[in-house]
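Below is the data:
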Amino acid sequence: MSVRSDLVILWSFLSFAVERFVEMIVNIVPDIHRKRLLGIEVPLLLTLLLSLAIAAGTALDFFQVFNIGFRWPFIGYMLTALVMTGGSNLIHDLVGWVRIEKEARQIRARRMGKKVEAD
């Protein structure tokens, strides 16, 4: 595999991990999804902060893969965190779509009188 395909896999994994972690927090603190801090929804802020902590804590800078350097390395970490945050939203949407599709399949199976297997 190439470095770029490894990067896509890494991005997908980290985005998924961030999405799941923030979802766990929202489930533990149910009213948090309605709260705003500095005009930003708290779950989005949590996603951004966690992505930034991962990028900075692991010195992960996606731009270095393309030989794009910044005078201040922290800029690369911040931009990488933004990319991971966007990926987290994408992963969240995909997980939601899979859940909806699974529920729809179960409803169709029940209507047809078939036994539904657990996934």
Observations:
- The first helix runs from residue 3 to 28.
- The mean pLDDT is 79.
- Residues 3-88 form one domain.
- Helices lie at 3-28, 42-57, 62-65, 73-111.
